[in-house]
Predict the 3D structure of the following.
Amino acid sequence: MLMLKAEYKKYELKFIRPGTTSRGTLMRKTSWFIFLYDTQEPDIKGIGECNLVPGLSFDDGPYFEKALQRICSNIQSFK
């Protein structure tokens, strides 16, 4: 039986060169990396990224990190 566990880590990315969008210029931006693995098979794992562009991404809002935390805490219900 697959027993999933998920965790995320927040990273602040600092650009070497400014990133330009239709809403302005970015010098830094936050990304979240999700780590997913099977607790019974430690060699089976995956990494994904949630990457929001401030002012452009639909999910960009104060609730995002809480939703990500809730998903990771209840990952078994998403199998």
User: Anything to note?
Assistant: The longest strand covers residues 4-21. The chain has one helix and three strands. Residues 64-73 form the longest helix (10 residues). The helical segments are 64-73.
